[in-house]
Amino acid sequence: MFVSSNEVTYSHSHSLREVKTMTITAKKIILTAAIILTLILIMGCIIVYAKTPSQGASQSRPKYFTSYEIKAGDTLSGIAKQFITSEYSSADEYISEVRSINGFTGDTLYAGAYLVLPYYADKT
Fold first, then answer.
1. What is the reported pTM?
2. Is 90 helix (H, G, I), strand (E, B) or coil?
3. pLDDT along the chain (124 residues), means of 10
């Protein structure tokens, strides 16, 4: 190592400034490569884990709503049996949606009142 006027010179004739510049350049290249690899990994995960529509989902039927006038003696379970479709896993799931749509939590129905009922049907 040779010392000359505020510069340290290595035996390979690179000044300290040149070594620092090369080090900074190398760090920038490594950082850029790391960022690119990270982006590739993220995009790969998105592609791999992206949900593709199943065959059943692509053939799903649209949901419609109808108004139903409650008759004396009607119950939510009876109405569910009449209007439920295969898209619902149970009558309880259907009844829960009917309650949510109509904004009530109880089981009391009044004859002459109306309920909004969901149902699925084939596209026409």
1. 0.52
2. coil
3. 54 74 90 93 83 56 93 94 92 94 89 94 79
